[in-house]
Amino acid sequence: MSIKVSFRNALNLAPIAGACASLIAMGIKLFGEWRASEAVVALLTLAATAAAGAASVYIARTAKNMSSHKRIFISYSREEAERAKRLREVLVKRGAYVWFDQNDLQPGDNLRAAIKSAIESSNSVVALLPAEIGKNIKMELHSAIAGNVPVIAVNAGTSHSFLDFPNDKKVVLLPSETDNEAIADKALGGSPA
What we know:
Blueprint: H1 7-30, H2 36-66, E1 71-76, H3 81-93, E2 97-99, H4 101-104, H5 111-120, E3 124-128, H6 135-146, E4 151-154, E5 171-174, H7 180-188
Parallel strand pairs: 1-2, 1-3, 3-4, 4-5
Helix pairs in contact: 1-2, 3-7
């Protein structure tokens, strides 16, 4: 088992690390001039802080599933840009929040970090695969698979395969002729498996 260390994971662990540091400092102070009543109040405060930190991490991780609107990330190449725009329109009309680079990336954004964050907070990723899968789409697909985000991949009718990707039931491959309504059904219907 490996533990991935990322900026987001570090932020999730910050409240716990702060609580541990407080506990160590409090332990050192206890052997000094504190009275028993001060130690009890400090311990109760520490326990409440640790519980709040743990709860905030849990809430942040489950928030995407608590929303009444599905969050969809669309991965596409420039040659699929028009189809991606039409798919976005279908999804938005059905009440989904769609992360779409042309609308959601701002000048000066760290491209890789913004995309990874958007994928991690999505309920599913719809990938409109071109004839040749470029490095950006591969990065997006790897991020989704690593983050356990279901992928609905629409194949452009070429012979490329998912040999680079794990054989994962969270990846569904649809034929290129699948219309946007059917893609939206799959994306909004929960897990595509």
